[in-house]
Structures are given as structure tokens and as C-alpha cells.
Specification:
The protein is α/β, with parallel strands linked by helices and about 180 residues long. Helix content is about 45%, strand content about 20%. It has one domain: Rossmann fold (3-Layer(aba) Sandwich), CATH 3.40.50.300. Helix 1 packs across helix 6 and helix 2 packs across helix 3. It is globular. The termini are close together. The model has no long low-confidence stretch (mean pLDDT about 95). It is an enzyme of class 2 (transferase).
């Protein structure tokens, strides 16, 4: 494989991004497919938020360089808006040739139930409202090249299997070619 392959997983809070990334990691590990997972939310998690300095992209570039030096060529990247930032994120990677973008979607009741596992009281209400607003933005702004998956009735493993099929990683060998 010349260059790298990346799966960007985006979606509203509660759609299942992190859970699906972990299921995807488990599935690929069982198949002995070499890959890395980066949780994009952690690349610039600070207060005050340093977004104007493009810290997420800078940190992604540094991390991916380290993975590449070790021979990795497949990346799973999760972040709410990653599907809207594909050009900047692939530029930060420096060598992404194959890109699969997936928008995970979930209905209001599913999201409220999922977020209720980690948020409570006023915090839960705020997170659900922000998630609802973000869902509308993502649906409206995501391009036609973004695969949309409704996760309400799917297990994380079923979503992961679908994403593997979309990415073409299903029959890949352990090491990058």
C-alpha cells in the first residue's frame, strides 16, 4: 500500500463513535490487521480551547508520524466533526491516499439513553441539546461522499463490520503492502 488509509468516524454525542472505534479495533485485531486508533477529541482537549492554533491537526501530524515510523498505514480517527474536516486532517497525516468517512447517526431517545449513562441532571440536558444541534449541522454539512449509518438498532460490532466493508480493509494483510 502506498500511502496510508484512514477511516474518519464522526457523529453527534451519543451516536456511538468511541464505542464503534473500540469494536472496530477489536474486530481488526482478531483479524490481525495492523491499525491505529486515535480519539480526536483528546488532541486539543484543554481550557481555554486552543482551536485557533490548529492543535488537533498538529498533534495528529506528530502522532501519525510516530505510527508511520513503526510501519502503520491504517488509521481509525474519531471526532464529532472529523467528517467535516477531512482536507485538514488528511493534510496533517501527510500521506492519506484512501479515505473513508462515516457519519454515525442516532435518534433522540437513543442518544438520551446513551448519554444518560455518563451525564446526569442539568449536564445531561445540556449534552442532549448540544448533540441535537450538532446532529442537524452534521446531516446538513456532510458531503455526498460521507457514508451515513443509523446506529439505533445496530450493535457496535455490526456497525464495525459495516465500516470494515466500506473501507475495504476486510481482506487486508497484517502489514501494509
Amino acid at each position: 500500500m502506498s500511502g496510508s488509509s484512514v477511516i474518519f468516524i464522526g457523529g453527534r454525542s451519543g451516536a456511538g463513535k468511541s464505542t464503534v472505534a473500540f469494536a472496530l479495533h477489536d474486530l481488526l485485531s482478531q483479524r490481525d490487521v495492523q491499525h491505529a486508533v486515535i480519539e480526536g477529541d483528546c488532541l486539543d482537549l484543554a481550557h481555554p480551547a486552543p482551536w485557533e492554533y490548529h492543535l488537533a491537526e498538529r498533534n495528529l501530524a506528530a502522532m501519525w508520524e510516530n505510527y508511520r515510523d513503526l510501519g502503520y498505514r491504517r488509521l481509525i480517527y474519531t471526532n464529532t466533526v472529523s467528517i467535516l474536516q477531512v482536507p485538514a486532517l488528511t493534510e496533517a497525516m501527510g500521506d492519506a491516499r484512501e479515505v473513508t468517512s462515516v457519519l454515525l447517526r442516532a435518534g433522540h431517545s437513543t442518544v438520551a439513553e446513551r448519554l444518560g449513562r455518563r451525564e446526569h441532571g442539568d449536564s445531561l440536558e445540556r449534552h442532549v441539546q448540544r448533540s441535537t444541534t450538532m446532529a442537524a449541522r452534521l446531516d446538513r454539512s456532510a458531503g455526498d461522499d460521507v457514508h451515513r449509518l443509523d446506529t439505533d438498532a445496530m450493535t457496535p460490532l455490526a456497525v464495525a463490520e459495516h465500516i470494515v466493508d466500506l473501507s475495504g480493509w476486510a481482506g487486508t494483510s497484517r502489514r501494509a503492502d
